Amino acid sequence: MTLSENFLWGGAIAANQAEGGIFLGGRGLSNVDILPQGEDRMAIAKGDLDNLERRDDYYYPSEVAIDMYHHYLEDIDLLAEMGLKVFRMSLSWTRIFPNGDDETPNEEGLLFYENIFRKLKEKGIEPLVTLAHFDVPLALIKKYGAWRDRRMVEAYTRYARTVFTRYQGLVKYWLTINEINILLHQPFVGGGLILTDQDNRAQVIYQAAHHQLLASALATKIAHEVDTDNQVGCMLAGGSHYPYTCRPEDYLEAIHRDNGEYFFIDVQARGYYPNYALKKCQREGIEIPFENGDKELLRENPVDFVSFSYYCSRTVTAFEEDYQVTTGNLFKSIKNPHLASTEWGWQIDSLGLRSSLNMLYNRYQKPLFIVENGLGAVDKPNEEGYVEDDYRIAYTREHIKALKDAVEIDGVELLGYTSWGILDLVAASTGQMSKRYGFIFVDKEDDGSGSLKRTPKKSFYWYRDVIASNAENL
Questions:
Q1: Position 121 pLDDT exceeds 70
Q2: pLDDT at position 328, please?
Q3: Phi, then psi, of 54 in degrees rounded to 5
Q4: In sequence order, which residues have a C-beta less than 8 Å from that of residue 441 and are 6 or more positions away?
């Protein structure tokens, strides 16, 4: 098996990190619009700090982001010049339904995305669209407490049906919820949850997870009803856990950590709650709010493919107090002495991508899609404004080699690869612009200053050659 001629090479962004224009076109506010840059960001993201009103003393990087709202024509031209076959993007739920559950959708928002999709198709680029990428309408957080309430399922699926119907024939690849397991680590970002008043944090998180899983299954069902050509995927924040040593305790700890993250897509891909998850809930006093028909809905509507992000692997031990823990990543990990790290403490492990591809394919036997991968780094343009990012090329080259080996040697079925932050954008974890992933430099600084000018980096031309050669030229 080799990479198919139809392999989907592309790039990825998210509305809340790139689009901007949060007060324009009839759009309402969402959770990330009240997530500031700075020292309170992580506490708010984790749901530990109740902060539902915007403050004058905070800087909100999503407000303008890289202003793709006004630059999308130029941006798509650059993507086409790079030769992209697919562009992963997300819709802003509140650009379609400003309050999340309005009686009628916002036509200006619907038309905005329609124009983007038509421009992409004109350039020969297939859209891959995420329905909810760290995106919960602020009005529904205030009204229902977000995904803790089952009424969110109806609001979400009504939104899903609206866009499936409107964009029929323009979009066929859909993702229901971005990095659904982030709900465990950043409940406000992943589900709009504020947990400061909750005695049983785990109960609220798994209750919200159940509602998201139901919504995902219903969206999958609706997508197939609207258009049988639609392909719907789930999306995991991926990266396998390595045992730090060959001690049996460490090996078992790695299995348990993997299960904890993969639980969500186990349900989405297989159609049922695995026994290990049910046992965990039983042990910890967590009550999954099953209602009549829930199990049948999940069983009858598994996703068509499994997508995931991959930036690094994680290393775990049953004896964590004895070891140094890495910083900078959402996932707790022991420092792996065999791996180098990025400036933000993310451990670089291209072989881990091949391992993850094998593990996921063996687990689900469904087509896979790498929808995020990339290197966050500080880029310094030269006097001409050009970035020679050989470090990013090296990182991406090794990861593409790994995915090729997974396909050509191991037999993994892989649909495509979209490099994260194909244009520099606001980093989700920190709110910074200085943590850059793009093959296209965007002139904007952490404080919001800058011209927003787009300039291809050295990696832009390298990736163009990779796509043109179907990764024969690396």
A1: yes
A2: 54
A3: -70, 145
A4: 379, 381, 385, 387, 424, 454, 455, 456, 457
Conformation bin of residue 9: beta by default, left when phi > 0, alpha when psi is -120 to 50: beta
- Alpha-carbon distance of 71 to 251, in angstroms, equals 49
DSSP H helices, 138-182, are: 138-144, 151-166
C-alpha separations of 343 from 107, 126, 323, 328, 440 in Å: 43, 33, 21, 9, 20
Q: Which domains can be identified in the chain, with CATH numbers? A: 8-469 (3.20.20.80)
Which amino acid, residue 393? I
Question: φ, ψ for residue 254 (rounded to 5)?
Answer: -65, -40
- Over 70: is that where the pLDDT of 342 sits? yes
Contact 316, 261 (CB under 8 A): no
**pLDDT confidence of residue 344:** 76
pTM above 0.90, yes or no: yes
Q: Give the end-to-end CA distance of the chain in Å, rounded to a whole number.
A: 19
- Contacts of residue 397, defined as CB under 8 A and 6 or more positions apart, other chains included, come to 474
Q: Give the residue carrying structure tokens 């329905």.
A: 131
The pLDDT tens digits of the residues spanning 213-236 come to 999 999 999 999 999 999 999 999
Long-range contacts of 73-80 (CB under 8 A, 24+ apart): 73/119, 74/454, 75/423, 75/440, 75/454, 76/116, 76/119, 76/120, 76/123, 76/125, 77/123, 78/423, 78/440, 78/454, 78/456, 78/460, 79/11, 79/123, 79/125, 79/422, 80/123, 80/124, 80/125
For residues 74 and 453, is the Cβ–Cβ distance under 8 A?
A: no
**Mean pLDDT on 126-153:** 98
**Enclosing H/E stretch for 73:** helix 68-82
pLDDT at site 335: 87
For the ranges 337-346, 390-399, 445-454, which has the lowest average pLDDT?
337-346
Q: What is the pLDDT of residues 405-421, one digit of tens each?
A: 999 999 999 999 999 99
pLDDT tens column, 457-469: 999 999 999 999 9
Compute the distance between CA of residue 463 and CA of residue 456 in angstroms, rounded to an integer. Answer: 11
Catalytic residues: 372
Distance in angstroms (rounded) separating the CA atoms of residues 30 and 138: 4
